[in-house]
Structure to design on (412 residues):
């Protein structure tokens, strides 16, 4: 199963192009699901169909089934998260934590978006789909969302380490709660395990370059090239594969017979768009264009027309990516690796990082890397946790961070 995510700035045409891509795939006979995580539910408008949280079939003339759904985050929040939150609250209260504080403690950041993504994974993995097309929210939110599984599992691990969860009874003992609290703790541990499993699964799905890729939609207006470059760096920082840029609403060339103000306007706009397109073509991701339709492209026939302008005769999901190059590699640069004179280098492959501000901070056993306007918290491999950072530099697209053993920690 292939998963293609569409993202981009507000209003550029993410929903329309995700729906158009899915319609064309269905038309070519592939079992396709298009799903939206946008609470505004505009996917239904684009397809001219009423959608719900379970996939419904939309007829595509001459094609196999096109199925569509939108994720209802509110309902999810109440259903699955509410249960776990309830458990946690009771337990914290039982451990003597003030009720108000317990409430605060059980609000995890970004949990709503996370549930949406988890739901996408659920419908994606339980159906017979060959391709799942996801209409994501705007870029900034998508980036935050895509970083969440990793950030949250770190958070979860720190609060309730897996090795402690594994020892039944230990958490209840630590909390000071009596024997009666045991079944409640067990249920919480089960719920936490389920959440951890969910996060792990999501990360695996997103990081699997042979399966998952992202398409960035934009409109060819000035300044968009620089911004797109930042987006590409930010996505790379999260280890995600961008398989293409899509410039939407591209105007046709004005025919010579078109004179007067309308002709002038079209010629000027067209020339301006072409300049931006040539800048975009220089970026490292392949660029496709979709025509500016005269009428709003809604309904399957109009969407198919847009899709044809976008893909021509090419397969909309042809290029399956190479297996992911590890984003993060550790090399030994001196010593034996066990001796105190050893030196190590952590290498992060970050295309485009040299073009903008780059920031690096060591926080305990983690490294916070900021590039392309986004931040990622990288858990350090255990050998590096016992080292101090001695320097950092860019080598081409690689950010290299040098480490040397910390004498206070190394021999322990
Ligand atoms: N190629 C196109 N030609 C003409 N109109 C288009 C084209 N692409 C999108 N539109 C129209 O532009 C509007 C915005 O498109 P769409 O809803 O797909 O954008 P979006 O990026 O999903 O927006 P949002 O950020 O609000 O989710 C819609 O009315 C849509 O019909
Ligand atoms: Mg949309």
């Amino acid at each position: 199963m292939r998963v293609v995510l569409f993202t981009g700035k507000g209003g550029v045409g993410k929903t329309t192009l995700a729906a158009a891509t899915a319609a064309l795939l269905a038309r070519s006979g592939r079992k396709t699901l298009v799903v939206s995580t946008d609470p505004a539910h505009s996917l239904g408008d684009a397809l001219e169909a009423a959608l719900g949280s379970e996939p419904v079939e939309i007829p595509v003339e001459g094609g196999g089934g096109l199925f569509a759904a939108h994720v209802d985050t509110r309902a999810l929040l109440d259903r699955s998260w509410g249960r776990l939150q309830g458990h946690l609250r009771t337990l914290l209260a039982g451990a003597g934590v003030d009720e108000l504080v317990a409430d605060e403690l059980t609000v995890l950041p970004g949990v709503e978006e996370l549930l949406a993504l988890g739901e996408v994974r659920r419908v994606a993995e339980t159906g017979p789909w060959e391709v799942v097309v996801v209409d994501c929210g705007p870029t900034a939110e998508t980036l935050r969302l895509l970083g969440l599984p990793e950030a949250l599992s770190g958070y979860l691990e720190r609060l309730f380490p897996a090795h402690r969860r594994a020892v039944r009874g230990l958490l209840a003992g630590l909390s000071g709660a009596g024997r009666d609290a045991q079944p409640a703790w067990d249920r919480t541990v089960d719920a936490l395990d389920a959440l951890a499993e969910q996060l792990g699964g999501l990360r695996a799905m997103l990081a699997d370059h042979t399966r998952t890729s992202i398409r960035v939609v934009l409109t060819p207006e000035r300044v968009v090239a620089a911004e797109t470059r930042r987006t590409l760096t930010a996505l790379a920082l999260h280890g995600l594969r961008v398989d293409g840029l899509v410039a939407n609403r591209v105007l046709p060339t004005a025919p010579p017979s078109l004179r007067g103000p309308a002709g002038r306007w079209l010629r000027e706009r067209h020339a301006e768009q072409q300049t931006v397109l040539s800048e975009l073509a220089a970026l490292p991701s392949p660029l496709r264009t979709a025509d500016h339709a005269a009428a709003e492209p809604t309904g399957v026939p109009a969407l198919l027309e847009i899709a044809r302008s976008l893909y021509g005769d090419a397969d909309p999901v042809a290029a399956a990516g190479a297996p992911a190059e590890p984003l993060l590699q550790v090399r030994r640069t001196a010593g034996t690796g066990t001796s105190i004179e050893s030196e190590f280098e952590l290498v992060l492959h970050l295309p485009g990082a040299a073009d903008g501000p780059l920031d690096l901070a060591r926080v305990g056993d983690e490294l916070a890397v900021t590039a392309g306007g986004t931040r990622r918290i990288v858990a350090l491999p255990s050998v590096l946790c016992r080292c101090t950072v001695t320097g950092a530099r860019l080598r081409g697209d690689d950010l290299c961070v040098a480490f040397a053993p910390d004498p206070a920690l190394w021999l322990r």
